[in-house]
């Protein structure tokens, strides 16, 4: 009995190791199948292309731009109800101001040379109310406000 008791931890360890190896094999097989079935490239050169410097225009969301830098950033639709989002305005104690501040920081800090911020006129809520500029931007006086 003593011999079997001492072997149990080793058996559990062996089962754990085998389970991990089988899981890795399934994962690798699944990835290989996905590459083959979807005609995807698995070469290093195609992977490097994703990180190459790009020319032209990149359209993205404020949330997805985090970590990237661009020569020029043009941010549109900076309206209350969009930044901050209505859910934050109604459900967060500071009415979404801290969230809007963080998101505007991310947007503004992505520009290397030029930054253009637009709070357009003429957008309405689903109830027909006019949308106004984000409060944080509305507090700033620019010489070129229209």
Protein described:
This protein is mainly α. It has two domains: 2-48; 53-138, Rossmann fold, CATH 3.40.50. The protein has five helices and two strands; from the N terminus they run ααβααβα. It has a two-stranded parallel sheet with strand order 1-2. The N and C termini lie far apart (88 Å). The model has no long low-confidence stretch (mean pLDDT 79).
General form: elongated
* Helical content class: 40-55%
CATH architecture of the largest domain: 3-Layer(aba) Sandwich
Mean pLDDT across every amino acid position: 79
Total number of beta strands: 2
Number of distinct helices: 5
Count the domains: 2
- First and last CA, distance: 88 Å
Name of the CATH superfamily of the largest domain: P-loop containing nucleotide triphosphate hydrolases
Rg, rounded, reads 26 Å
Q: Would you tell me which CATH topology of the largest domain applies? A: Rossmann fold
Summing up helix and strand content along with how strands pair, one would put the structural category as: mainly alpha
The CATH class of the largest domain is: Alpha Beta
Uncertain ranges: none
The helix-strand sequence is HHEHHEH
Strand order of the largest sheet: 1-2
- Main beta sheet: strand number and arrangement? 2 strands, parallel
What portion of residues belong to β-strands?
5-15%
InterPro entries: DNA_helicase_UvrD-like_C (IPR014017), DNA_helicase_UvrD/REP (IPR000212), P-loop_NTPase (IPR027417)
Keywords: ATP-binding, Helicase, Hydrolase, Nucleotide-binding
GO molecular function: 3'-5' DNA helicase activity; ATP binding; DNA binding; hydrolase activity
Organism: Enterococcus saigonensis
């Amino acid at each position: 009995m003593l011999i079997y008791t001492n072997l149990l931890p080793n058996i559990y360890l062996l089962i754990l190791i085998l389970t991990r190896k089988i899981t890795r094999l399934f994962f690798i097989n699944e990835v290989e199948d996905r590459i083959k079935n979807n005609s995807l490239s698995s070469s290093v050169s195609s992977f490097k292309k994703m990180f190459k410097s790009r020319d032209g225009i990149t359209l993205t969301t404020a949330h997805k731009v985090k970590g990237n830098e661009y020569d020029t950033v043009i941010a549109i639709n900076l309206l209350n109800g969009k930044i901050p989002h209505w859910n934050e305005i109604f459900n967060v104690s500071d009415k979404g101001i801290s969230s809007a501040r963080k998101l505007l920081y991310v947007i503004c800090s992505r520009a290397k040379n030029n930054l253009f911020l637009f709070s357009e006129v003429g957008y309405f809520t689903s109830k027909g109310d006019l949308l106004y500029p984000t409060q944080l931007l509305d507090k700033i006086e620019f010489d070129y406000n229209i």
